[in-house]
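Minutes, project huddle
Topic: does the predicted pose make sense with zinc ion bound?
PN asked that the exact inputs be recorded in the minutes so nobody has to dig through chat later. Recorded below.
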Amino acid sequence: MNAVVMNAEWSPRPGYTLSERERTSRKATMASQVYQRPVFRWESVPDPTPARDEVLLAVKACGVCGSDTHCYESDDEGYILFSGPVRMPCICGHEYTAKVLEVGPDVRFLRPGDLVAAEGMLNCGVCEACRIGRPNQCPHLEMVGFSAPGAYASLIASKERFLWKINGLAERLGSEQLGCEIGALVEPIACSYNGMFVSAGGMAPGSHLAVFGCGPIGLGAIALGRAAGAATICAFETVPERLEVARRMGADLALDPRDCRPHEAIRELTGGWGADMLVEAAGAAMQTMPEIEKSFAPGGKMVYLGRTGLRAPVLLDVLVTQAATIAGARGHVGGGCFPKILRLMERGKLDVAPMITTRMPFADALGALHKSTDRTDGKVMVYYP
Ligand SMILES: [Zn+2]
Ligand SMILES: [Zn+2]
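Predicted holo structure (tokens), as shared on screen:
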């Protein structure tokens, strides 16, 4: 079969010391420290051969993730931007939905013809992190499209335990294809869900929500805030196209932070109270933290989801005076993230369709990756005709 394979040179940065595990497994824990000069190209690769407990899937849709963009792009020294774990070469693509073609003899619940959304984080299920309910922190994690074969291919194999049925979503939308494209948004939205409702413990109906950054994670946070009964949602983003999508997803106020003082906008919208929950999905902590620290409502919670390697300036005293909390989170598995988002989608209670702003056929997957670098889209979706 044909697949989009990403490759790069194994060339640890001067001053970066490889761990023994990195050297022997050739899996870089922080890819941005090790992989240089990325190349994405079509290659002919063997079809996957599913194990006894795996299913063979025909991919139907796969979103382009910010992390894919961060592997596609490189910095001034030629190193890829993505700081997560990567083993190259690897078929990329992980935000996918698919149709079950064949099931192995040990597969219990899935049947040929089922439509599924897939988790992208292959946690081991056996280690202490997995067994205490922290699967996103599994130290043995393999990531679909980064260290395990991804979905920019016509076929992929997966264990049943990483798949969720989306037959009901396709039925409700009256179209397999549409169901699969909307279903492929569950993964990024689940990252927002995991941060807001699992890690930070959620927000009560009637809360004021502020979202910094309106890429897919921030847009997911807006949609979930709406579904959870936010009184107001205030969103900040520098790209005009994304501000427009934020409004369509339910933001009451969507502003360019360069045209305003975000903490003043939040105080004004909330009658002086401040934000009960603040989501950082901009990866711009240097700019957002000084505003966030002035925006907390009493007992307010900040959810940190955007990533940056830089130290952020923040006056931690606000955690005392406002009894505020900063919660961090990575990933989208466990905590009921996938099934609960699917329940909302299947019942028409989470309208995320406006997030998909560009659709491209699988034959143009390289074009889709390139399109994502302009950062004007809510989500670039690749579909498989
Ligand atoms: Zn992703
Ligand atoms: Zn584990």
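Observations noted during the meeting:
- The chain has a mean pLDDT of 96.
- The chain has two domains: 2-185+352-383, 190-328.
No decisions taken; revisit at the next huddle.
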